[in-house]
Amino acid sequence: MIRFSWLQFRTQAAVAAGALTIVAIVLAVTGPNLVHIYDTTVVSCAAHHDCSAATTALTDTDGPIQVFLDFLLLVIPVVIGMFWGAPLVAREFETGTFRLAWTQGVSRTRWLAGKLGIGVLASLGVAGLLSLMVTWWSSPIDRVQADIYSPLAFGVRDIAPIGYAAFAFVLGLTAGLLVRRTLPAMLSALVGFFAVREIVTRWVRPYLFPPLHKSLPITMASPVGFDETPTGMKVVATTRGLLSNAWTYSNQVVDKAGHAPTQAFLNRACPFNTTTGQANLQACTANIAAKYHELVTYQPSSRYWGFQWYELAVFLGLALILSAIGFWWIRRPIS
């Protein structure tokens, strides 16, 4: 049964191998140039006081390739689910060829296990190799951008895409098993995958680890900002370089009791210069700093791999649950 499943899957495997080879060649040719730019400009930029220009030059290098790689890793699980998983079983039900396999001494469970095993292994291999290549190629840019927790970067780096690919394939195969039609199964894989990704990103990932809290003083080196509102001036916390590569949940200006500055206090702390029509930033910052501080709620960069492993486990676990549903369903009478 494994040999027969492989024969059915060999065309998709050949296409995937060819595509991976092309991507590997492009990245092998362009990747060393990114490393060279990083080593010769960004590493020494502090000594030349020109880090802004150096980082911009690096992040602008091979811009179309950067966009394409992020897009590729974003959609590859969907492609796997729609074009590998969904048709693998649904097409056999549409054409009736599943009956031939079941009358040749092959049990339903073994029939499904052969298709599932080959497909999952191929999905893991493709997503893993692609993610490995893209993570290596993008590493100089990622070090400069220092935004490893962004929803886009997190989902297209390291091991998380492996879980996405396995889940997408099993989702497509299970949809094909349940609805027995190729196009509805493909649509179910598309909608289902993005729905689960969105749920995990918004409502599961932020709670995998309890966030940390850090109190930071307000200084002229990192002053507060101000927003004009219909009712007056609102104080706004600034982004702190001290928490580079961290996932910031919130950044508030509060007092020891956790209360934000009142409008009456701001009016007293930040008097306007009648000549310029603006508040004196230095005096304003000093008055606010005497009573308030910044309270940052965040996830540190040291937890990044913990989040990656948890996300991988979540999607592999969902794939196992769907597989169990498939094996239970295949034992039911099928007309």
Give a written overview of the molecule.
This protein folds into two domains: 2-209 and 304-330, no CATH class; 212-302, no CATH class. The strands form three sheets. It has a three-stranded antiparallel beta sheet, with no helix packed on it. It has a two-stranded antiparallel sheet with strand order 2-3. A two-stranded antiparallel ribbon has the order 5-6. With 335 residues, it is mainly alpha-helical. It has helices spanning 2-42, 45-48, 51-60, 63-95, 98-102, 108-145, 151-155, 160-179, 182-204, 263-269, 281-289, 304-330; strands spanning 212-216, 225-229, 232-236, 247-254, 272-273, 278-279, 293-299.
> Which ranges are low-confidence, i.e. pLDDT below 50, for 5 or more consecutive residues?
none
The largest sheet, given as strand count, sense and whether it forms a barrel, is: 3 strands, antiparallel
Proportion of strand residues: 5-15%
Helix count equals 12
Number of strands: 7
Mean pLDDT: 86
Order of helices and strands: HHHHHHHHHEEEEHEEHEH
Radius of gyration: 27 Å
Shape: elongated
Integer count of domains: 2
The percent range for helix content is 55-70%
Terminal residue distance: 23 Å
Please list the strands of the largest sheet in the order they lie side by side. Answer: 1-7-4
Class of secondary structure makeup = mainly alpha
